[in-house]
Every structure is written in structure tokens, then in C-alpha cells.
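Worked Example 4.2. Consider the chain below.
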Amino acid sequence: MTRVEEFEQLRPLLFSIAYRILGSVSEAEDAVQDTWLRYELSSARPASTRAFLSAVVTRVSIDVLRSGRVRREEYVGPWFPEPLLTDPYEDPEQSAELADSLSMASLLLLERLSPLERAVFVLREVFAFGFPEIASAVGRSEAACRQLAVRARRHMDAGRPRFEADRKEREELAERFFDAFREGNVDGLRELLAADVSMIADSGGKAPQWARGFFGAEHVSLVLAAFLPPFVRIGGVVEPRQMNGQPGAIFRDRDGKVVNTWTLDILDGRIQAIRTVSNPDKLGHVGPVADAWAVLRETQQVRPDAE
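Applying the procedure from the previous section yields the following C-alpha cells:
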């Protein structure tokens, strides 16, 4: 097998590691490409190509994460990970860990960890790497990596909800939600939302922003019921689909361009959070991006209260 063939075989794994460390599709793709360049220039043939490339992509991702911390601190408004439609890496023995670690909620919890803690947690808890491999990847002793893993796990467990909804339950509730949403059914929406539900958008200051967000079942249900009819009247389309392994949707304009993506956090039979990504810099991998400001202006013009 050639180096190119070996690398392409491992590309899905490398991307999945980098995405979970970085929370960015574009940065993860760059990290994988950088890993290939380093592998191509390396004269030595590693004993384990998987271990070697995983270590390289981890180190590259840690460096990117550290250098990007200042940018994230200066980010305008809430910051969410870039939406991921499909995880390219599959492993039946770790399917539960892979799916859980991909959710927006888990990725946001990972943001609380230091770069080293995040990398160790991802390699150990998600991909089940051994501590010798992890130590080599992050440049720390095995003992230090075990301590990092314990701290990271403690932080993650403290932030996780106590009861998770199973996949079928999430999908059924999401289907009812989008049905009520299309119908503008305020009562139907309200009964599906948690009392303290939040609806928050990540625009990065480059798309329309929902102030600081909407909160509470009553407020959010009214906003949702009022939002869709004018959007549909101008040719907008809501395309329900899995987003980061969770129920969600892609909103498109009349030309099929992406306006934003939605992800639903579901727990205890209710929607706990609706997270929207509308920053155009984070949507290019989903498809051609719409002019969200133009969509908003047109939507406002056809609202009943504008007539």
C-alpha cells in the first residue's frame, strides 16, 4: 500500500479527531492537510501509520486551538461549533461515544477544557487510544495524561445532563416540532418546549442577530410561530436533517442557498435548546451561502404587520 493510499484510508479518522478538538470543519480539514504534508516529507516509515498520523493531527490541532483562543475571545456574540452534517469516521465498537461527542452540547462542554485536556479526552474517551499513544501525541508522560484524562472527564460529567433521550425518541419529537413549526401552531410548539428553553444564534456579527436570544417556552413558541410563514412566502425552505448527530434543519432561500442551520437539544421529552448557526464563514461546507440580510429584509416586507 502506498503512502497516499494509507493516508486516504485514515483520513476519516484524522478529520474526526481534529474536528472534535477544534469544533471547526474548515480548521479540521486544514489540520488534516497539514498532517499529510508532514507525512509526505517524513523519510522514516512509522511502525504504526495510524498512531503516527493520529499523533501528528492531534499536535497540529492543539497548536491551532491555542493560537485561535484569542480570536474566539474576541468573537462577536455567542460562539458555536461549525455544523457537521456527517461524521466520515465510523466504528461500531465506539458508535455511542462517537455520536455523543459530536453533539453541539458536548462540543460546547469541550470548549471549557484546556487544549491538552481536550485532546486527551478526545483520544481516550472517544477513540479509545491507549495512554502510551496519547502520551506520544501530546508530548506528556503517561502519568500526566492519566491525570489530564481524569480532570477532563470530571469536567465533562459535571456538565452533562443526567438523562439522555434515545435516538428514536429524539427523532419523533423533532418531527412533531417541525410539523407544529410549519403549521404555526403555538400550542403545539409550546408543549414540546422545556419551560426554560433557549433559542440562541451564532452570527459572528456577519448575519442578522437575535439580540441575546429568546428564552422561555411562551416567548420562543410565539417567535417560532411568527417566523416561518413570511419565510415560506418568499420561497424559503426548511429542510429537516441530522446535524452533529442530532435532529436539526437547514434553512434555504428560494435559490436553495443556505441561510442558517438549526440544531435541537432534546432531553426528558422536551426541547431544551435551539442553536442556530448563521455566520456565513461557518456555512460554506454546507452549501452555497445566502445573503441572510437580504432574506431578512424580504421576510420583513411580507409580514402581516408590515402591510
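The first strand starts at residue 193 and ends at 202. DSSP finds twelve helices and six strands in the chain. Compare this with Example 4.1 before moving on.
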